[in-house]
Sequence to fold (180 residues):
Amino acid sequence: VFDINVGEMTIEEATATIEEYSDNYFSGKQLRLVCGEDVVVMNVKEAMTAIDADYIAGLAYSYGRTEGLFARVRLINRNEPRPLAVSEGFTINESYVTRKIEELADIVEKDFVNYKVTNTGTSLEIIRGQNGTSVNRTEIEDDVNAALSAAVFDDITVNAIVREATPPDIDYLRSTVYVA
Fold:
């Protein structure tokens, strides 16, 4: 658990060790939300508000007893660690995660503006449109929660959703300008 060998500890010893170690475990770790060239860095220690060391120690204790007695003795004698990936027992700071997702959205998102065509009677004004971009906040939050739960602190790639502004159809412009 968290790179700690709790295999030969009591539940109480494992709980105390996990509590002590977890304070430092998340220090300096980051998740990066990456969308194209835009990056927002998330401090994992701020994103994880609490760890239930009692619960995690109990999971490790149960995990170490999934084999029969002889199989456990053999594993102990070989001194082969059996890592336990813990995906429960954490409390995620949802407001911090949401704030970081909004920070990325503020950088990436652009309002969609369609082309505007105006016939003034003597001329035709065309105002260029602008592509709109957005991000799926729910998908990003799910990805962040999954990464934090799995203790995988890598880049999270965010795909921008692009709504393209399309230029007006040439046949429409021709029909607006030419009168038969």
